[in-house]
Amino acid sequence: MDKGRTNQATQMFENLGGILRKFIFSILSIGPVPSHIAFIMDGNRRYAKKQNLIDGDGHRTGFSALMNMLKYCYELGTKHVTVYAFSIDNFKRSPEEVQSIMQLMQEKIEGLIEEESIVNRYGIRVYFLGDLKLLNKPVRLAAERAMGATAKNSKAVLSICIAYTSLDEITHAVQESVEEKCDEIRVLNTSGAGYHHREHLINVTDIEEHMYTAVAPNPDIIIRTSGETRLSNFLLWQSAFCILYSPSVLWPEISVWHLVWAVLDFQRNYSYLEEKKKQA
Amino acid sequence: MSIYHVYDLNRGLNVPKRRTNCRIMGLGAEVQKVLHWIAQSGKIGLCLLWIILHLIIGIWYFAVDIVRAIESYLISSGLFKRYKALDISKVRYLAIVIDSEEARQTSKIIELLRWLAAIGIKSVCLYDPDGVMKKFKEAIMARLGDAKLSEEVTVNDPLLDQKFIALEFVSFLDGKEAVAKAANLLFDKYYLAGDQEKPIFTESIMVEALKAIGCVETEPDLMLVYGPTRCHLGFPAWRIRYTEIV
């Protein structure tokens, strides 16, 4: 009997919270809404230590925090969300931890493909960005399946950076641009056009087309939790005119209010950043 | 029901069914008007709330600025003991990002550099998107006195008591454009080598190419951003991997 009542109370609280949230988002929508928000999910292990959980549970709580943040972003009207799930540098951690994170990721990726999951509810297309060859086979296959299953969704985009570092991305983009140019020149030479390679140099746009993150526009806000002010090799190229926000809260404890504060900061500085983008 | 039926009514045609329908239509139009009015006032209400919200945030930031100004005044007057002995050794390379409009005030930049030299910072990288500080670099170095360009400093012996401050001037063109130039350099190397296999570039090859076109590879430990918002405004991407941005 009691449990039923507490369930009812939590349900009512959630509904009230949802209405309050929708009201606040409708106020925020009066001003410019960011079209792309990126998250660096830092602080899962520290949270686990704080709450005396085993390490793996910290990451699991972090995952549910991620699902909540995604829901809030899409309700607000942000079409693109990017998250930093696993860096190439994280492979240096203890093998047990890497293994448990890989297992968790595989489980969660497969969860995303299910019918009732958040991706299908909001029509989200999922991309996995990074050097996927570095992942073990089951995770890589799950990722490819998820990308294929959500390919038809078009309302919103979720980019999950796995086995990703910015420098690796830039190097990969340069490599692909060079390959593409070689192929172009070969084709032109065989067709007898006699194209000299110096006439068509690689420029910044060519490199940007080959970035993993070409599926989304440049981020408007990057939020890194647990108060760290570094970017740790995440979206260094794309964050030229992007606001960096570092709340000191740990990732599993992040709430909608942090998102609201970040969006308000974005709205305050919108005209300044737009001007800077035009000048560049 | 179309509007012609209303005209039929006005002409006095004996059509009782149409009359009721027109009354209902008239009522529907009234309801629509009321709903439209409610939606409009709702939107105006939301706009007002948005303006009030931003006003409150503006006042909050203003208060924070005042507190910070008081704090800096107290620190510079020597009241806080912990700021007297600052351990600067961890900051081997400092980056400063300034908005190009503010960068034109060279006297303020020189004041900042003098403070940094007084604290004990030995190497500074000055960045502004338009390269304004780069244009005035001779003037800045002349007015500063004990300054040398980073590229001219060859001996980096930490035991030697460095009496000057090493400066580097960077602009937006040294970021993305430099990577494009490095890409062209790598292309020339690869294309001219005539290798039919696909190129495999590693991060070290990329960094070597960037060095070859004249880019410095030192990564700043700390970056101070002077501007309305915390944003690195296009600082060369490969150099800020683990830089603390404040």
TrEMBL record, chain A:
NCBIfam families tied to this protein: uppS (TIGR00055)
SUPFAM superfamilies documented for this protein: Undecaprenyl diphosphate synthase
Species of the source: Ilex paraguariensis (yerba mate)
GO CC terms of this entry: cytoplasm
EC number annotated for this UniProt entry: 2.5.1.-
Protein's recorded name: Alkyl transferase
CDD domains attached to this UniProt entry: Cis_IPPS (cd00475)
Residue intervals passing through the bilayer: 23-41
Keyword terms of this UniProt record: Membrane, Transferase, Transmembrane, Transmembrane helix
Gene Ontology MF terms in the entry: magnesium ion binding; prenyltransferase activity
Family in the record: Belongs to the UPP synthase family.
UniProtKB/TrEMBL annotation, chain B:
E.C. no: 2.5.1.87
Keyword Transport attached: no
Known catalytic reactions: n isopentenyl diphosphate + (2E,6E)-farnesyl diphosphate = a di-trans,poly-cis-polyprenyl diphosphate + n diphosphate
This protein's UniProt keywords: Endoplasmic reticulum, Magnesium, Membrane, Transferase, Transmembrane, Transmembrane helix
UniProt cross-references to SUPFAM superfamilies, sorted A to Z: Undecaprenyl diphosphate synthase (SSF64005)
GO molecular function: ditrans,polycis-polyprenyl diphosphate synthase [(2E,6E)-farnesyl diphosphate specific] activity
Main location: endoplasmic reticulum
Pathway named in the protein's UniProt entry: Protein modification; protein glycosylation
Span of the signal peptide: none
GO cellular component, one term: endoplasmic reticulum membrane
Compartments in which it is found: Endoplasmic reticulum membrane
Essential cofactor(s): Mg(2+)
InterPro entries with a match to the protein in the record: Nus1/NgBR, UPP_synth-like_sf
Broad class of enzyme this protein falls into: transferase
Transmembrane segments: 44-63
The keyword Magnesium is annotated on this UniProt entry: yes
Family: Belongs to the UPP synthase family.
Entry protein name: ditrans,polycis-polyprenyl diphosphate synthase [(2E,6E)-farnesyldiphosphate specific]
Organism in which the protein naturally occurs: Ilex paraguariensis (yerba mate)
